[in-house]
């Protein structure tokens, strides 16, 4: 158990909320940095030791106030794909400056975008950073910014990379919709290939891993890959959601280049999603050996258990 007081930026996002849950369970005091205090209150209902701090993550003055008394900053902020080119790096820099000035440790949840196409599986931390997408290259830039602050300003950091999330409070416009539809008998829509082994990590497992690495001295100035409990195909994942929802909803996997190109002409978000579609078509499985050897555990939530917990949240949060 660590006594560090932690600031979580992006507290109402899926990984932010899951990390706060893990920190609170560890006995830490947490300051949740949010844009709307009123909105945030239902995210942390029932959690002890969570202080909600209202502010704007683009404003240095707000971060400077928020980080006072905190020794660790968990950077869980995320923004729309449409804003990545212009806003992702400047937004990160505000929190990096705040952490560096406060001499607080900086903890960053990374992802697989930086690797591009997997050159081998499982993908370990030594895999080349060979991103071929715009968003992958931005993520590389973000990780390089963190390392630069470390080398030039003495910032202590920890980076933990994950595959795609699923679970409570994971809201991306189609994940939560699939669960809602499965409860009312409507068709489920997903993207990608049907039978390729992929990874979906239960969000609360990811939160526990990020909290553990971010609080331990063993994680200082290290990068870790954390896999899902097991690989799964999109077909199996959709079938599990359909069955667990109780209505045996039909599902459809959208995987046509033509469809994404066509709809991308009219919808900029679809165009941005299309760029990352390769991750739903190709095998890229993370190697968690370094993380397990360092911290002694890896995610263990089965898909059956994770999907069940997600449905419980959907029913409560969306009143389905």
Written account of the structure:
This protein is α/β, with parallel strands linked by helices. 42% of the residues lie in helices and 16% in strands. It has a 7-stranded parallel sheet, sandwiched between helices. Strand 2, helix 2 (37-40) and strand 3 (50-54) form a beta-alpha-beta unit. The longest helix has 20 residues, at 134-153.
Distance between the termini: 37 Å
Strand line-up of the largest beta sheet:
3-2-1-4-5-6-10
The radius of gyration computed from the alpha-carbon positions, rounded to a whole number of angstroms, is 19 Å
By CATH, the architecture of one domain is named 3-Layer(aba) Sandwich
State the total count of DSSP E strands. Answer: 11
Brief overview, please?
With 320 residues, the chain is an alpha/beta fold. The chain has helices spanning 14-26, 37-40, 60-66, 84-102, 134-153, 175-184, 203-215, 234-245, 257-264, 268-275, 289-295, 303-317, and strands at residues 5-9, 29-34, 50-54, 72-75, 105-111, 157-162, 164-166, 188-191, 200-202, 222-225, 251-254.
């Amino acid at each position: 158990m660590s006594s560090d007081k932690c600031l979580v930026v992006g507290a109402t996002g899926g990984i932010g909320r899951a990390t706060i849950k893990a920190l609170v369970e560890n006995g830490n005091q947490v300051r949740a940095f949010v844009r709307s205090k009123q909105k945030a209150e239902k995210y942390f209902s029932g959690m002890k030791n969570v202080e909600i701090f209202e502010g704007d993550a683009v404003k240095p003055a707000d971060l400077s106030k928020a980080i006072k008394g905190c020794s660790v900053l968990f950077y869980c902020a995320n923004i729309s794909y449409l804003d990545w080119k212009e806003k992702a790096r400047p937004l990160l820099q505000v929190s990096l400056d705040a952490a560096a000035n406060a001499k607080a440790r900086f903890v960053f949840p990374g992802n697989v975008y930086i690797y591009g196409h997997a050159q081998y599986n499982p993908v370990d931390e030594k895999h080349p950073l060979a991103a071929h997408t715009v968003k992958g290259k931005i993520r590389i830039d973000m990780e390089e910014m963190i390392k630069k602050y470390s080398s030039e300003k003495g910032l202590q950091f920890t980076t933990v990379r994950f595959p795609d999330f699923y679970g409570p409070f994971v809201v991306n416009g189609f994940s939560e919709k699939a669960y809602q539809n499965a409860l009312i008998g409507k068709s489920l829509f997903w993207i990608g290939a049907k039978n390729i082994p992929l990874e979906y990590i239960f969000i609360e497992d990811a939160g526990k891993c990020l909290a553990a690495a971010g609080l331990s001295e063993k994680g200082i100035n290290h990068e870790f890959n954390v896999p899902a409990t097991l690989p799964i195909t999109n077909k199996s994942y959709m079938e599990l959601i359909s069955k667990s929802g109780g209505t045996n909803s039909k599902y459809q996997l959208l995987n046509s280049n033509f469809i994404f190109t066509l709809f991308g002409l009219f919808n900029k978000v679809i165009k941005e999603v299309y760029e990352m579609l390769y991750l739903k078509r190709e095998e890229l499985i993370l190697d968690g050996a370094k993380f397990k050897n360092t911290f002694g555990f890896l995610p263990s939530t089965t898909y059956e258990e994770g999907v069940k917990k997600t449905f419980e949240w959907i029913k409560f949060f969306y009143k389905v």
